[in-house]
Specification:
single chain; alpha+beta; 3 helices
Length: 118
């Protein structure tokens, strides 16, 4: 009598995870793994899927542009400073407004001192 040949075992294959429900997709669904293959049994995760958390905007780019414009083009810097104040960034917004107004006053003093308004 002949014996049935044994199925070769790959000794280098990673071990299979134990049977159980595993996360399947991003909607909190779980699927049953029987130790060898995925079954058509579905479940729901006990923990709800993570919701996206809104992060507060820091308006860093707007602040940088505000400071630059307050020096180079004070009128535009003044407008950007006001926008920052309205958006809730009061401290940098007020600083940009003050710098823009100071640059406007210095520009006016310069124009008067050089005789532009004679």
């Amino acid at each position: 009598m002949s014996e049935a040949p044994e199925t070769p075992v790959d000794v280098h294959a990673p071990p299979q995870p134990p049977p159980g429900f595993y996360e399947w997709g991003t909607e909190g669904r779980q699927r049953w793994w029987d130790g060898e293959r995925w079954a058509d049994q579905w479940g729901m995760s006990e923990t709800p899927p993570a919701q996206a958390v809104a992060t507060p905007k820091d308006y860093r780019g707007l602040q940088i542009w505000g400071w630059c414009m307050a020096i180079l083009f004070p009128g535009l810097g003044l407008a950007l400073g006001i926008v920052l104040i309205v958006k809730g960034k009061k401290k940098p917004g007020i600083g940009i407004v003050v710098l823009a107004v100071a640059m406007m006053i210095l520009s006016l003093i310069y124009l008067i001192a050089t005789g532009y308004y004679d």
